[in-house]
Design goal:
By secondary structure, the chain is mainly beta.
Length: 122
């Protein structure tokens, strides 16, 4: 079972990026999927989560509301994080993860991807 995150890179403030997280080994349509990030010297923090199957429920940390959008394509076993109006404080390694419930608690996520680095220059 593997979650493969991709799409990170070096961008300037105000730019956009779309992260992808492709699952393999099992289907994750029955799981809530989340994105977390970890900046240097800081703890891993919640960014966004989307509910299972149809993805009708989403939740975002306050600092990204209105700028980031989480979505999923169950046919492709993939979850996305569209990041607009990026700021230097968004710089971090971004991880995708799967959980049996919609939650902000990283302890409730059972599967984790390897992370993709996003660097936003000012």
């Amino acid at each position: 079972v593997q979650l493969q995150a991709s799409g990170g890179g070096l961008v300037q403030a105000g730019d956009s990026l779309r992260l992808s997280c492709e699952a393999s080994g099992r289907t994750f349509s029955g799981d809530a999927m989340g994105w977390f990030r970890q900046a240097p010297g800081k703890e891993r923090e919640f960014v966004a989560v989307i509910s299972r199957s149809g993805g009708g429920v989403t939740d975002y940390t306050d600092s990204v509301k209105g700028r980031f959008t989480i979505s999923r394509n169950n046919a492709k076993n993939t979850v996305y994080l569209q990041m607009n109006s990026l700021k230097p404080e968004d710089t971090a390694v971004y991880y995708c993860a799967a959980s049996p419930e919609v939650t902000r608690s990283k302890g409730r996520y059972n599967y984790w991807g390897q992370g993709t680095l996003v660097t936003v220059s000012s």
